[in-house]
Amino acid sequence: MTKQTDRIQKRILQHIEAFNDPDSVISARAEHTLIRYYGGKAFEPLIAACDHPNPTVRFRAAWTLGCSKDPRAFDTILRLTGDPVGTVRYDTAIALGILGDERAIEPLIALMSNPDEEAAVDSAAAMGLCRMGKLPVPALLALLTSGTSHARMLSASVLGHFGGEAAIEPLGALLSDPDESLRIAGIESLAEIGTQRCLEFIGGCLEDVSPAVRKNADYWHQDLTKKLTRQKKKLQRATKA
Asked: Which domains does the chain have, with CATH numbers?
């Protein structure tokens, strides 16, 4: 190892040690520095840090590895989604999605399908899937029809973010589900996608038997109507110009 390489490794280890700093600004700066300036040079020390006795160091190391987009980090980050400490499980579930490896879809779907009142890892898994863009859409569409009510609600929420046209009809089907919470989740996700077809589906819930569903549908129907009207006027102005 050359002197320069040795100095670089010492700096990397110093930044990793800063993960443990009680000042969140310092620890966040250490993450940013490793991601931006050290890249692959920090890979092995970060992998080692994922076994650090301090849980804060573990989840920050996993987060930094996720941001590296290095597929070699997949197995280590996946292992930490089963860490005994809830905060580590939570952050590494998101980091697994940030990594962007397609192998993460199945384990994240599994985590999302299991309610976790203690650490909300199921919600973190949903956020991880959001970070993966459209890759998990087929798996989420399957979960929308076959999962538990809780998993279906989370799936609807994620699909509202990036499901696009492919998600509209399956989300619309939720609006006839006996579970009013699922109907509300469907309305909110359709409103987020925000097309004319979504508006039509939401309009069908304005006379729902549930007061909560009717109230939710009324709010989002008005909001989406205004949004689509603005878009139409903007398009008309652009066409005239």
From this structure: 1-132 (1.25.10.10)
